[in-house]
Amino acid sequence: MEITPVNQCPIPEGILVAIGGHENKGEDPEKLTQKENSIPLEVLHAYVELIKKQNPVLEIITTASGHPKESFKDYQKVFKGLGVEHINQIHHDRRGVVLGDKQLIDRVSKADSIFFTGGDQLKLTSIYGGTKFLYSLKQKYIREQVVIAGTSAGAMAMSTPMIYAGNQEVQNIGGEIRVTTGLEFLKDVCVDTHFTDRNRFVRMSQVVVENPTCIGVGISEDTAIIVRKGREVEIAGSGIVIIIEGFDVTDSNILDFSDKVPFAAQNLKVHLLTKGGKYEIPQQNPPHI
After folding, report:
1. Where are the alpha helices (DSSP H) in 55-131?
2. In terms of DSSP bridges, do strands 232-237 and 278-280 run parallel, antiparallel, or are they unpaired?
3. Based on the number of CB atoms within 10 Å of its own CB, is 115 exposed (0-12), middle (13-18) or buried (19 or more)?
4. pTM score over 0.90
5. pLDDT in tens, 199-250
6. What CATH code is assigned to 15-26+38-277?
7. Would you list the domain boundaries of the chain?
């Protein structure tokens, strides 16, 4: 009997936008280190256009950032230039403060969009994981037409599994990529950012081979994936999105990680998508309670 995966979980009403980092904030590509085909504000404009509300309320979460004040001011200026007037900042350095902040749930309920800045994705998961704040944000994503976006670390934190360590110098060695549970807006999907710009193909391939139920989504800088209904992916921006599937991997040496040998795998499947490209996230892992 042939089995066709069926999603029995609620289909999210909200939209996710995962940005690969270094998105154009209005700079002239000829004067700064942007891609030659970069269009000023293209990705961020596409994000704002998804917020189908009059006078929307935007909450910018700078918790991942090492320079939260500067990061907030940068995005506040950009989003005001794109017509968003009601912009607030959420920032936490300690988990205990989140647990005691009773106003957070109310702020989530009033927000039309949430934007996670870049920085350190492990700060986001360790501070917000398992909190009522994150629970309320997920409930809003499932039940309301909210737009939740993140760039760089903010995009990586949306996924599960989530990479939090393992740079270009060690990615070729099996077992050197560190993974944990992300914020789980996307399950069985691992998001990596600055992907082609920092040569992160091998580290994502390791994650996929270790977790073959999951797909890897590598997003280049100044590029984004827009996810509707939890599964329907569309590409925006100037770069490439590389999707790696490991469902049909026949062999790898991932179990030899203790020998510190270069990673090898056979029969990975790869998709390269650009602006306007579409992809449907597979359902290989039936949901259950």
Report:
1. 68-81, 95-100, 103-110, 121-128
2. antiparallel
3. buried
4. yes
5. 999 999 999 999 999 999 999 999 999 999 999 999 999 999 999 999 999 9
6. 3.40.50.880
7. 15-26+38-277
